[in-house]
Design goal:
Layout: E1 2-4, H1 5-10, H2 12-20, E2 25-29, E3 32-37, H3 59-63, H4 67-74, H5 76-80
Parallel strand pairs: 1-2
Antiparallel strand pairs: 2-3
Length: about 80
């Protein structure tokens, strides 16, 4: 399917839906093909844990108690006991 830019702007949602369902859409300017609208294909696998050993997070920073925040939730009196 070939679509001129002005039509592509007006119909972008519908064109993306067609691409999602496997159709290739060619965007053209003055009937000259410029770009292909095709499904995205990731460029390789994601690497999990690539920051391992480079970041230190103290458990107390994540799970420690904060008196001021507890006071907002439970009232100032609950924090004093």
């Amino acid at each position: 399917m070939i679509v001129n830019i002005s039509e592509a702007k007006a119909q972008l949602s519908k064109l993306i839906d067609r691409v999602y369902h496997g159709e290739k859409v060619v965007i053209a300017k003055h009937n000259l093909p410029i770009a292909d609208l095709v499904p995205h294909k990731p460029e390789g696998k994601r690497e999990l844990g690539f920051l391992r050993g480079q970041v230190d997070v103290l458990d107390e920073a994540l799970f420690g108690e904060d008196v001021e925040i507890e006071g907002m939730f439970y009232g100032e009196d609950a924090c004093e006991s």
